Amino acid sequence: MSRRIRILRTGPQALVQDLGRPGHAHLGVPPSGAVDPHSLTLANRLVGNDETAAGLELLLGGLELAAETSCTVAVTGPAVEVRINGKLADSHQPLHLPPNATLTIGTPQTGLRTYLAVSGGITAAEELGSRSTDLLSGIGPDPLRDKDVLDLGAPNAANGADVVPPFHAPDTITVPVTLGPRDDWFEDAETQLRQGSWTVSDRSNRVGARLRGTVLNRRDGEIPSEGMITGAIQVPPDGQPVVFLNDHPTTGGYPVIGVVDRAHLRFLGQARPGTTVRFLPRQ
Amino acid sequence: MLLRRCGTDALLVEVDSLTEVAAVRAALHGLPGIEELVPAARTVLVKGSLQHVREALKDVDLTHAPATESREVTIPITYDGPDLDLVAETAKISPAEVVELHTAATYEVAFCGFAPGFGYLTGLPPQLQQPRLDSPRTKVPAGSVGIAGEFTAAYPRATPGGWRLIGRTEITLFDPKAETPALLAPGDQVRFVVA
């Protein structure tokens, strides 16, 4: 018998995500994948899945689902209220859902993105080796809608009880940045980045964290389109930086003053609009 | 050639021409540990294990690109684009001559970007090298074939765009469900024929 879950309510945005489809940028295909891969792999481990299994990435929580089969689930990311059949349960640990049980995920207290793993993983069709939804180019499963039914793979044996502390998204984050490749477009890029201060704009999405604040002074003009990597800080003519997240375009023509260190990108991906961002540049 | 640091695990190799881009791409193609290799107009982005990259770049002959595995692709076009007359007028030739010039040339995919499967093709005859439209269209239908500057390209899907449109193709340029999703990859040779 197939194992399935039924989405009753998606919340603001629910996407199928795994660790993405790197290696296709030369075809114009973004890497995509979970914006906070740490939280997704953690959720997968808690339910006994491979870290590469597909789960759900929820923007500001709000999802409700019905288990059509007995399964183990784990909710990770920022602290969030989780209920099974209306009764309070815990996040950040494996939870058993009996058949027909309802799982309700509230709105996280801090941060943006909640991750849900289900034992067996979500087996949406792979495209270019990944089940991730890419919102920029429309590759991968469509964003989930109410009443969608998702197929699950075969579960692994439970790997015992495990609890991890929830992630707390602070009001201010400082992210390390490697200068370049186009820091020479800026007068003393290091000082400008180190002394500046920005807030995350509400126009941010999986393509990029758009920042508002200190204007970065740059040369006029554009660069012939060049390859872009995740974490690149692009600076358009208005001087307001955009940090590329997982669904970023693979090429671009604005100068990149620096690249956010990979391990710290997820903090930007979890930063709510209004969060203060400071950069810690190094050569 | 200039190597520019791009984060902790990538380099942007900057050169002076599309020929040099092709040479650098060929030199780095197939190196172990490379996650992404993205040629563009004047650069090649290389991401992954950079251990052998600098060494491979030491001996590159930038004047010509050694052949790498390249496919030959033929794309049938119906030349009835909304800007065909504008292109002919600008080139001071007839629309039929535009078609003749466009189909006579052999093109090469210099790089992809903008959208999955959108290949920037070089080899456009000089008379057809024309600027973009003054005002971009909000929606260019999928399959449209356009020209802009030194490039010609076919739009894999409907997007906004400012290229001068001379025709359209029915061929699928990008199918994420296919084993080879993109019809065009950097280095491929392309010819256009009248559908």
From TrEMBL, chain A:
Alphabetized UniProt keyword annotations: ATP-binding, Hydrolase, Nucleotide-binding
Protein name: Allophanate hydrolase
SUPFAM superfamilies: Cyclophilin-like
Carboxyltransferase domain boundaries: 26-283
Highest rank taxon of the organism: Bacteria
Keyword ATP-binding among UniProt keywords: yes
InterPro entries with a match to the protein in the record: CT_A_B (IPR003778), Cyclophilin-like_dom_sf (IPR029000), PxpC (IPR052708)
NCBIfam families per record: urea_amlyse_rel
One Gene Ontology MF term: hydrolase activity
TrEMBL record, chain B:
Start and end residues of each Carboxyltransferase domain: 1-184
Keywords: ATP-binding, Hydrolase, Nucleotide-binding
Organism: Lentzea guizhouensis
InterPro entries given in the database record: CT_C_D, Cyclophilin-like_dom_sf, PxpB
GO molecular function: ATP binding; hydrolase activity
Name recorded for this polypeptide: Allophanate hydrolase
